[in-house]
Design goal:
By secondary structure, the chain is mostly helical. The protein is 65% helix and 0% strand. It is globular and about 40 Å long. It comes from Huso huso. This is Coiled-coil-helix-coiled-coil-helix domain-containing protein 5-like.
Length: 129
């Protein structure tokens, strides 16, 4: 779920300090296109506080599948890879002051907003961070 735009890679301990900013952008887009899967998973986790990792595993897999296979997310990942990579690089260089990367995240989200699916022919609206 967290890794819709970084090829499914997890976060290293060093990256974790900056991850909230990056994850917020990914979560905004994931929530828009995989809302049902995320809601089902969240309700399962809330309902199973002591056993959620086991009880909700299949729902977690569904969220991961959605983020890796949804056509809009794939298109954003493809069309906006350059601004997202610049954003990731900015986070690496500004680990103690991620606010310095707000312009980079804005560029990525602006790109995501302009993504069009040829089958839909409609612009994709993504909420702003």
């Amino acid at each position: 779920m967290c890794c819709a735009f970084n090829g499914g890679r997890g976060l290293s301990a060093k990256q974790t300090g900056n991850s909230e900013f990056k994850m917020q952008a990914a979560m905004e887009i994931t929530a828009k296109y995989c809302r049902k899967e995320m809601e089902d998973y969240g309700m399962c986790v809330a309902s199973n506080p002591s056993s959620w990792q086991q009880d909700c595993y299949q729902l977690k897999v569904k969220v991961a599948h959605c983020t890796s296979s949804h056509p809009v997310i794939q298109k954003i990942r493809s069309d906006c890879s350059e601004p997202f990579s610049a954003f990731e690089q900015c986070l690496k260089l500004n680990q103690t002051s991620v606010g310095n990367c707000s312009e980079h995240i804005s560029k990525f989200l602006a790109c995501a907003e302009t993504v069009k699916l040829s089958s839909l022919g409609e612009p994709v609206a993504v909420p702003h961070v």
